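Hey L., structure's done. Input below.
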Amino acid sequence: MKIDNGVLHLSTALKKYPHTSKLISGDISALDVRLDCLDIEPIHRAFAPMARSQTYDVSELAIATYLQAKAYGKPLIMLPTVLAARLQQGCIVYNAQRGPMSVNDLIGARVGVRAYTQTTGMWVRAILEETYDIPTEKIDWITFEGGHLLEYKDPSFVRRAPVGKDMLTMLKSGEIDAAIFGNDLPGDDGIASLIPDPVEADRIWYAKHGFIPINHVAVMHRAVAEANPDSVKSVYKLFMQGKAAVDSPAELQKRLPDGIDALRRPMEMILAFCEKQKLLPRKLELDTIFADCIEFLGDDAH
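Output:
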């Protein structure tokens, strides 16, 4: 954070999406605030530094990581804007070349996931339990890295893969039975969705719940917000302007909503899923999550 000629410059970690590209380039800006965007790829590499030590002034952050950071008392505030969301049922895959596998075969199976705390993993586990009656603790979870918060310890039913092992290689070799991937979903021969017709399964899930599962939101360092309270509204408006500048902004808004009114139901579910999956060290109330939004944004938070 620095002030140059009356403009507050904020170090910012964002992935380049159609709705953030003009923020990153500076084509969309504010009179009082400038987002100095850093090139961090993949974006999840920014999550641990932001969650642990608030390395950036503004950052994209996985929703599960934000909730953990909140539970551990990290000085972050969530802006009520969704930066990334995805239908999730195609994210759990298996190696069809090693024989058939169904969702019911997951009980007792070895399932890989980058980290137990990964938001995509949280959503897939929630869907498996809610839709297919597969309890999280009945799966042998194999992880390849720890969570973004050093204080967090994985549950007893989670174990770490041997050092140097790769999830896709283990899936191909049969060392694990299935795996959850995010943006790195492999297209290798034989790697198939474990859930039959995931597109139709996601359509049914969306029809039931009315929203697309949230992966990433925007957060700010609370010290920056407290020192420059007007900047919070400016940053929030920049994100909304970025969305308004894309083709079909109304369709984008359905997928990536803004405002606590639109986020209330998804966040209620996310909190319940995180608690059930033992992702949080203590219970968090929904009003606590949105209190920061209201404190700094007032009526604009809605």
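The longest strand covers residues 76-85. The first helix runs from residue 21 to 25.

-- N.
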